[in-house]
Design a protein that fits this description.
about 210 residues; alpha/beta; Rossmann fold; nine-stranded mixed sheet
Length: about 210
C-alpha cells in the first residue's frame, strides 16, 4: 500500500511539472552608442575629460524599467522581467563617453578614475527616467541634469537640466525601450550643442 501511494504521488508531481507553463524570460536592454557626429564637433584638443556616472536615487538607481499609469500618477512602478543592462546613471555615463569620443576626437575622454588630473569633469543627476501613460497613448519622460566643473573647484561652470517627453510609436515595453533610446540621444545632442558655448566663455549655469 505504501509503495503504491508513493508511486501515485510521484506520478501526480511529474504530471503537474509537465503541465506547468514555462517561466517568463528576462529581457535585457542596452542603449545605442552614437555613431555619427551631431551638429558639430567640440573643441577639446589635448584636454582630458573625466565623465562620472550620473547620480540617481531610489528606484531610478536600479535596473528594472519604470512606469507610471493614469490611475496612479504619483506611484512609480517597475516592470517585471524587463531590465536595463546597467542602472540608468551608469548607462548615461557610457553613452556620454561614447558621444564625446566622437565629437571631440582629439581629447582624452574617460571615466571618473582620472578625475583628479582631468581638465574637465562632467557628471549629472537623473531626476526622471520612466514610461508614462497619457490617455490612450504612452510616452517616455526623461529629466536629466548635467554638470561641468574644473577638478580644483566645487562650483560648476555648467549646470543645466534637460527635460523631454517623447511619445511612443505604439504601446508596450519594446516600443518604450526604442523611444528611451531616441530620447537619450536627443538629450545628449542638446548637451553637446551647448557645450561649445560654455567652452567659448559663455555663462551656462541655470
Amino acid at each position: 500500500m505504501n509503495r503504491f501511494f508513493i508511486l501515485s504521488v510521484l506520478v501526480m508531481l511529474l504530471a503537474g511539472c509537465a503541465a506547468s507553463p514555462p517561466l517568463p524570460q528576462d529581457h535585457i536592454y542596452v542603449f545605442s552608442a552614437p555613431k555619427e557626429p551631431g551638429d558639430g564637433r567640440v573643441s577639446l584638443t589635448g584636454k582630458t575629460v573625466a565623465v562620472a556616472a550620473f547620480k540617481s536615487a531610489g528606484l531610478y538607481s536600479e535596473r528594472p524599467i519604470l512606469f507610471r499609469n493614469n490611475l496612479q500618477t504619483n506611484e512609480l512602478q517597475q516592470y517585471h522581467y524587463h531590465y536595463w543592462s546597467m542602472p540608468p546613471g551608469q548607462a548615461m555615463q557610457e553613452v556620454l563617453i561614447a558621444a564625446l569620443r566622437i565629437q571631440a576626437p582629439n581629447a582624452l575622454v574617460t571615466d571618473a578614475s582620472v578625475a583628479s588630473v582631468a581638465d574637465l569633469q562632467i557628471g549629472g543627476k537623473i531626476w526622471n527616467f520612466e514610461q508614462r501613460e497619457q490617455g490612450d497613448s504612452q510616452s517616455v519622460h526623461l529629466k536629466i541634469e548635467f554638470e561641468v566643473k574644473h577638478p580644483q573647484s566645487i562650483k560648476p561652470i555648467f549646470l543645466r537640466t534637460y527635460e523631454l517627453d517623447k511619445r511612443q510609436a505604439e504601446s508596450g515595453v519594446e516600443s518604450a525601450v526604442a523611444t528611451f533610446d531616441i530620447a537619450v540621444q536627443e538629450i545628449m545632442e542638446n548637451f553637446l550643442r551647448d557645450l561649445p558655448l560654455l567652452l567659448n566663455g559663455s555663462s551656462m549655469v541655470k
